[in-house]
Amino acid sequence: MEKNKKGFFGDGIEFWIGRIVPFKDQREQVSGNSWGYRYKVRLLGDYSNNDTVEDKDVYTAQVLVPPTAGTGGAGRLETVKLSQGDLVLGVFLGPDRTSPVILHGFVRTNLVEKDNSKFSVIEAFTSEIIPGLMEKQEFSQTDLPNTPTLKPQANKGGGKGRKSPLGGLAKLAGGLSNIPSVGAFGELSAGSKAKTAIRVAKMFF
User: Fold this and answer.
1) How far does Cα 46 stand from its chain's mean position?
2) For the segment 114-163, what is each residue's pLDDT rounded down to a tens digit?
3) Distance CA 44, CA 38 (A)
4) Digit-coded pLDDT (tens) for 170-199
5) Could you tell me if 63 and 115 lie in one domain?
């Protein structure tokens, strides 16, 4: 069968699914010194749990962003938010399985179980990416993560309420009377419009 040499992709593009390897094995790509957004990916089918290929030697795939994310032109951009251990879908753009690119990521659910295999989902937090208010909740689904709660060891105060500043209030013009007093806060400095507003307000006191 004759191959199609007219199209850019020849006989077509080949899809793949892979797992982004730990960031410690791709410092050059995630340190901020690499061009574009690239991640090392262990492809399902190309590699196995029994191979001897180290994470630092697997495919390096470039990320393609959606049109709504922007490319950086005219300052329009959104950062890519993929993490180590993410399962992603991609294609080879070049012949002979070259130029791999990442198209999409599979969301994590709260039912994913971690194990010691090379293709297992791993914790996305690192020494540089630490948990925030949501703590270590690593999933995205219709059942949304729990909102932050008050920790038992949190500082809840000393149990003593604050007293009202009666001394300071007594020094105001008019004292502590329940009837509002004109000029209680002294002479106000403002523009003509503000002064007009003040005069109107005084008519109601």
Assistant:
1) 31
2) 777 788 878 778 777 777 777 777 777 777 777 666 566 666 666 677 77
3) 18
4) 666 665 566 666 666 666 555 555 666 666
5) yes
The pTM of this model reads 0.64
Per the DSSP assignment, residues forming a β-bridge with 135 are 132
Question: Mean pLDDT for the chain?
Answer: 78
Quick check: is 165 in a domain?
no
Q: Same domain for 137 and 175?
A: no
Is 143 found in the same domain as 186? no
Q: How many CA atoms lie within 13 A of 43 on its CB side?
A: 18
Q: Residue 29: give its domain's CATH number.
A: 2.40.50.260
Question: In terms of domains, do 187 and 102 share one?
Answer: no
Domain of 3? 1-147
Dihedral in degrees, nearest 10, Cα atoms 67, 73, 74, 79? 70
Distance CA 46, CA 90 (A): 13
The count of domains in the chain is: 2
pLDDT confidence of residue 205: 56
Strands (E), the chain: 14-20, 38-43, 59-63, 87-94, 98-106
Residues 34 and 113 in one domain: yes
Q: What tokens appear for 87 in the block? A: 């399962």
DSSP-derived letter for residue 174 is T
